[in-house]
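Our platform keeps sequence and structure together, in a single record for each protein. Such a record has a labelled line for the sequence and another for the backbone structure tokens. This encoding replaces a full spatial description with a residue-level series of whole-number codes. Below, we set out a record of this kind in full and without editing:
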Amino acid sequence: MNFETVMQELEALGKERLKKMYMSNGAREPLFGVATGAMKPMAKQIKINQPLAEELYATGNYDAMYFAGIIADPKAMTAADYERWIEGAYFYMLSDYVVAVTLAEADIAQEVADQWIASGDELRMSAGWSCYCWLLGSRPDAQFDESKLASMLERVEQTIHESPERTKASMNNFMYTVGVSYLPLHDKAVETAKAVGPVEIKRDNKKSSIVNASESIQKAIDKNQLGFKRKYVRC
């Protein structure tokens, strides 16, 4: 399938209801409103195609950008490529669920995520913390530096309440993911989450939401989910 065929198929799969929902979360025109599950048949047919992924991502069309993440070749992308992608990620569903997810399958994932966390830019920071969530939830514990993750937990405790809104959400997810998926620091993550307490996340034109990593970790414990690792990061 070439670029034109993919765009035509995505447009045909679009639903007005989903388009409105995506836009209520921050998406903007152009977009079609395609359910992620509806993209799977095309993804199976195309498999991995980095040149096509680049064409699709460059459109600025939310659905095309999302599909680009599914068919991208993460290990073929350079740090500069990821920087270009995060530059185009104008809201969190792109930064955290397309760019961060794609990065999580790359060998340079931690290096790039560290730079984004230190950037001071809301969506870059959010993507960096999110990338670590995808990494911790899929890779063996032995692939991580325990002392580094411990210092990251300390950073969360010290800065989460003053951080930008989307960054807060991803930092909260990081505490939860360390507590559930990275067993060497389970206890520290539990302590950190308790110290942080409830986190208020303000959203444009919507009521604020309250997230609580401590309660979420406890729910995972009750369901015997400690040590959870997913087989695949991307769809």
About this structure: The chain has a mean pLDDT of 97. Residues 72 and 100 are 12 Å apart (CA to CA).
